[in-house]
Amino acid sequence: MDSEDSVYDLTRPDRWQGGVIFASPHSGCAYPDWFLAESRLDAQQLRSSEDAFVDRLIRRAPDHGAALLTARVPRSVVDLNRGPEEIDPLVVQGATPPAMNPRIMAGLGVIPRVVSQGRSIHDRPMPRAEAESRLARFWHPYHRALSGLIDEAVARFGGAVLIDMHSMPRDALAHLPRPRPDMVLGDRNGASAAPRISAAVAEAAMAEGFRVRRNSPFAGAYVTATYGRPRDNIHVVQLELDRSLYMDEGRIEPRADFAQFEARFARVVARLARLRPDATDGAIAAE
Length: 287
What we know:
Blueprint: E1 8-11, E2 20-24, H1 33-38, H2 43-46, H3 54-57, E3 67-71, H4 102-105, H5 128-157, E4 160-168, E5 183-186, H6 195-206, E6 212-214, H7 222-227, E7 234-242, E8 247-248, E9 253-254, H8 258-272
Parallel strand pairs: 2-3, 2-4, 4-7, 5-6
Antiparallel strand pairs: 1-3, 5-7, 8-9
Helix pairs in contact: 6-8
């Protein structure tokens, strides 16, 4: 069985300031040899489903007193932002999901059928035992780590704020009127985070000149739906960044000005690390 350090990287701050966690479940790029051997796609094609370089954009979070959890396992192997029951019967033999939701129908279940542009990953369905093995090796360790961090934050600080980081293709915004957003904030229309927290996240981004749109076209998926419990002072906000701002989407390479964008977004990270789940007179702690 794979060790948990092959699934994710967990970096703790020297002093955790107030229960803020940054996570990136889709930035993993450590492709197992067995997966590359059995996939009908090459590594470059598989990488099109990654949130490439998002882990680099948030790597300074521990410097500002926040915990950082980033996936190493790629999304095309196991999608950590899906529920373990979201199994595609076209991917797993004999699978009977409780309901065919739009994500499964699109081939984006917990073990994806496709990457971007609808390109199929597998030549044939896999046995149910293989699917269960993947979940045991990759999905469960990541979520044990994430839920453990949230529980620890609640015990130490009375609550938690999880910033769930993602990226979106520029084409995902093509239907929107200009000027298009630089990022989409998802809180499941208020179900996964208190309004003061979501507002503070938006304000932190806008303070650096980013255009922010809420809940459309991305309102959040498994992580926000499962862990966001604002009544229990556990707040989850999903942030989707426009990939074209910092990378060449075709080559999956950082843009020449990546360092400048990283520095700009690092200032957003620093502001978000000051969020406090227990704030009563404002979501961000005073300097």
